[in-house]
Structure formats: structure tokens, C-alpha cells
Prior knowledge:
The protein is of the alpha+beta class. The chain has helices at residues 4-18, 20-25, 38-51, 62-73, 90-99, 136-157; strands at 29-35, 56-60, 79-87, 109-116, 122-128.
Amino acid sequence: MMNARPLSVFALAFFVVFANISVWANEAVKVYGWEGSYDDAKFSVQDAIVGKGLKVVYEGHMATMLERTSKAVGKPNPYLHGEYLLFCSASHSNASVNADPQNIGICPYIIFLYETKKKPGTIHIGYRRPVGGQTPESKVALKAIDELIHSIVKEAAEVE
Length: 160
């Protein structure tokens, strides 16, 4: 029997990469530039998450996966570095799923960071915004999640 965990991690990675193609066009992703080393940027993101009393539960190594598979798919890896960090807030997630059980799809939250081969030294830090909300309560809960993640990214990217 196949282990479901690696498959679910792969499915999440697939979703993060390919689902965001249309999301970018819908402005459901916020990204900030950050000058400096990738390691410093990653530390800044991790520190901002922990500073809110949250814990990173998974780190996805997108650039590593793309480097490993680039020959097989016939596409180059555009990244020097590229990762996403998964985390959640029990209080925010509880409010959102109680407002609408479909909001289970919002958690975990994802913050990503990357540095491209074309622009080394410029780090991009961003997140996929929680969108949707069919009820007023759901909209309020998702707005609170968006504000939480946005505050973490702004702190990490040192944006006013």
C-alpha cells in the first residue's frame, strides 16, 4: 500500500506551483521584494511567523524539486532558491471553518520566498491570499487570516 503522506505533499507542491498561474492574474497573491541574502530572508520569515506565536509545520523545497526534475520535463529551473513555508493559527482557522466548513481549504497558510537565476540578490517574499467567503462571517474570518499573514510578510520583508 502506498504511503499517502508523500503523495499529499507532492499534491500540495503541484497545487502551489500550478494553481497560482491564474491566481497571480487575480491579484490573490501578494509579493514584496527584499534585498539581501536568501538565508537572511528565510530567517526573517521564520522569525516573523514564530514572533506571532505560530510554528512552521512544513518547508517545501520547490527549487530543489524543479532542479531534480527539470531534465525530465524539459523545462529549466528558474530559481537559485525557492521554498514555501506552511503554518496555521488555531484561533484564526477555527473561526474560519466555523463560519464556513469549506474554509478548511485555507489552512495551512503558505508564505513563499524565492530568488531567481536572472536576478540574484533580489528575494521575493509573498503569500497566497485567502479568498472566497460566501457569508459575512466567512468574509470577516478570511480577512483576519489575510491580515495576519500580510503582517508576517510585511515584517519579514521589512515593509512599512
